[in-house]
Amino acid sequence: NLKNRQVDTSTWKTYRNEKYGFEVRHPGHLTTELREVDTKNNTMRFDIFDDLFNSENKIGPQVRNEFESVTVDIYPYSKSNLERLQDNQDIETDTRAITIESQIGPIVGYFLVSPLVGPYFESIFYSENYIFRVNAYSNFSDLAEKILSTFKFIE
């Protein structure tokens, strides 16, 4: 629980997106990318990931392993979208939940297990216009907590 832990973000970069109304900080060595993943439903994906083939390496194009990232899916807000996302969360009575103190107030996250991908972290929260679903797989889940502690909505 990050409620009582301070996260040193002094060397972190800030990603700010006016269109989707949020700002988040992340470790400076990580790369960010915003891309459209579903044109029909106007869904965007914001990734914070370790760029294995960055420009300094001059090896090739960006290669991203989704299991080595913090992924934020951004959906247009609607009650049906929110209900669908919440219904798809596989929360059991023994699921470990955490509360992260963030710039927007407490965010509840869950440590879940998928038969396909194994353990992962997930959190769903929303603003007036958008729903944000955050996923991070086991080795990035601690980082996801720290990043979420810096999340804030902007006008």
Helices and strands in order:
Elements: E1 13-17, E2 22-26, E3 31-38, E4 43-49, E5 69-76, H1 79-88, E6 96-102, E7 105-114, E8 118-126, E9 130-137, H2 141-148, E10 152-153
Antiparallel strand pairs: 1-2, 2-10, 3-4, 4-5, 5-9, 6-7, 7-8, 8-9
User: What kind of sheet is the major sheet?
Assistant: 7 strands, antiparallel
State Rg: 15 Å
Q: Summarize model confidence as the mean pLDDT.
A: 81
* Spatial ordering of strands, largest sheet: 3-4-5-9-8-7-6
* Through-space gap between termini: 28 Å
Shape designation: globular
Ranges with pLDDT <50 over ≥5 residues?
A: 57-64
> Helix tally?
2
- Which structural class do the helices and strands define? mainly beta
What is the β-strand count?
10
The SSE string, one letter per element, is: EEEEEHEEEEHE
Short description:
12% of the residues lie in helices and 45% in strands. The chain is mainly beta.
General description of the model:
- The protein is mostly beta strands and 155 residues long.
- It contains 2 helices and 10 strands.
- The protein has helices spanning 79-88, 141-148; strands at residues 13-17, 22-26, 31-38, 43-49, 69-76, 96-102, 105-114, 118-126, 130-137, 152-153.
- The protein is globular and about 35 Å long.
- Mean pLDDT is 81; it is low at 57-64.
Output the keywords.
155 residues, mainly beta, seven-stranded antiparallel sheet, three-stranded antiparallel sheet, 12% helix, globular
